Protein: Transmembrane protein
Organism: Variovorax paradoxus
Amino acid sequence: MTLRGLLWRFAAAYMVLLVVVALALNLAGASSSTSGNVAALLGAVMWVCMDFGKKNGRYFTSEEKKRAIAGMLVIDMAMQAVLTVSVGLSSGAPALSLGPMSMVLLFIGVLHALVIWAFVGIAGKQYAAAEAKRNRNG
């Protein structure tokens, strides 16, 4: 699998998970979807990273890891920007205020960058452990 393929899969998985989690939370009567958004992000990151390792028979090189994290963050922030603008417009605001919206996106970006970075690393450790176990068991 190429890095481009990984990022396309991440975008598709993340979008589907965001919709599924939002629907599930709405049906459950939850008023906030922040934890659901993070859960969708974690699921998408872990799945595509583990799949990359499985399909390539190895995990990321150092350069691939940096590019994968940056690519996932760009995709995540694009989706978050769309969600932020949608929420702003649906709340009846006559015009979007760029300052507060930028601050919200910056805050979300920092948190999500840390989450993506951490879980790309965790997925790598899980992949290595699974490979070691598979090699021990033959």
Remarks:
- The first helix runs from residue 3 to 28.
- The helical segments are 3-28, 34-56, 62-90, 98-137.
- The mean pLDDT is 90.
- Residues 3-137 form one domain.
